[in-house]
Write a structure and sequence with these properties.
The protein is mostly beta strands. It has one helix at about 5-10; strands at about 15, 25-30, 40-45, 45-55, 60-65, 70-75, 80-85, 90-95, 100-105, 110-120, 125-130, 135-140, 145-150, 155-160, 165-170, 175-180, 185-190, 195-205, 210-220, 225, 240, 245, 255, 260-265, 270-275, 280-285, 290-295, 300-305, 315-320, 335-340. It contains 1 helix and 30 strands.
């Protein structure tokens, strides 16, 4: 007979103590510049929590901050001393990890869905994307955005790796930008995936770790598209994978599809991870376009994931993501966060 531990942690990964009280909506490890390894997680319980991860099996609760409404995104500053927090309360705040102080750094007219820190050759900036259909760029020395870009629809996902940004909107547009100089649109296309945009991540050339090659886009229909070039003239370099789908037994040509809730590229290998509403995570070889591993099925959806800076640790969170509707919500099922040693599993075959 399966025990409760077997059902909630079937992959035998290390479970982090003191998780949020509601589903994790954003998660990120501290950058390589940080002297220690920290993991932050923002949640629908209005909190952002921080753990010091010393190694697999040792994640020490460090500190916590809260907002007045649920958290939708988090990101680190380049030096790993500050965390930026985007919230449904239309604000972005900066949490100084050293002093434990919070200050407001950005604002929109609707909930802020995404926030990303980047450093150019001449300035540092926060890019925020909102359901008010704008992207805004903020120099932290000013109360006003240095640039505002109007979008066709609400921002659903975004990623930044200087000098590029990619934004997915409600209307299934995928818009890419160049950030060197004044931010400007590079290209705008309709997603090749059938269903609504859910998550996006940029990947680098794993040989140089400098050249930005392309990005991966996940949707609510179980699919992921990999764009292997930012150049609009080479848009044919794209392929798709059915990452989180299940065949329906005994019914030909039918399947259940589940949202791809997050996609992250490994910082060392030419591989990536996806997590989904089918309660699994999967590792993929981008070059061969094949799956490296799929996890055992958890008892709840997997909502977010991330790698630490050297690619040794894979973190993921489980919780209810409302994909099955309110009738399946069980208040007794609590969110959980896990750490997995992953470097060898992510090596291309």
């Amino acid at each position: 007979m399966l025990t409760m531990a077997d059902r909630t942690n079937p992959n035998n990964d290390f479970e982090i103590a003191l998780p949020p009280d509601d589903t994790v909506s954003a998660m990120e490890f501290s950058p390589a510049t940080s002297q220690k390894t920290f993991l932050i997680a923002g949640s629908w319980d209005k909190t952002v929590r921080c753990w010091e991860v010393q190694e697999i099996g040792q994640a020490i609760p460090n500190s916590m901050q809260s907002m007045t409404m649920p958290i939708l995104d988090v990101c680190w500053s380049g030096d790993g001393t500050k965390v930026f927090i985007a919230s449904c309360n239309k604000l972005v705040k900066c949490w100084d990890i050293v002093t434990n102080q919070m200050t407001q750094v950005a604002a929109h007219d609707a909930p802020v869905r995404t926030c990303h820190w980047f450093e150019s050759t001449s300035y540092t900036c926060i890019m925020t994307g909102s359901w008010d259909k704008t992207l805004k760029f903020w120099d932290l020395r000013s109360e006003r955005p240095i640039t505002t870009i109007n979008l066709p629809e609400r921002v659903y996902c975004a990623d930044v790796e200087y000098p590029f940004a990619v934004v997915g909107t409600e209307s299934n547009d995928v818009i890419t930008y160049r950030l060197d100089g004044t931010p400007s649109m590079l290209d705008r296309i309709t997603s090749p995936l059938k269903y609504q945009n859910r998550c996006v991540a940029i990947f680098k050339d794993k040989t140089t770790q400098v050249c930005i090659l392309g990005f991966g886009l996940g949707n609510i229909g179980g699919g992921t598209a990999i764009f292997s070039n930012f150049n609009p003239q080479k848009r044919k370099d794209v392929f798709s994978l059915n990452c989180h789908c299940r065949n329906i037994l005994k019914i030909p040509h039918t399947r259940n599809v589940y949202a791809v809730n997050d996609i992250k590229f490994h910082p060392v290998h030419d591989t990536f991870a996806t997590v989904g509403s089918n309660s699994t995570f999967a590792f993929w070889d981008k070059k061969s376009r094949k799956m490296l591993k799929i996890s055992e099925v958890l008892d709840q959806s997997i909502t977010k994931c991330c790698f630490n800076s050297d690619g040794q640790i894979f973190a993921y969170s489980s919780g209810y993501d409302w994909s099955k509707g309110p009738e399946y919500y069980d208040p007794n099922e609590k969110p959980r966060l896990f750490l997995r040693s992953c470097f060898e599993e992510l090596k291309p075959k």
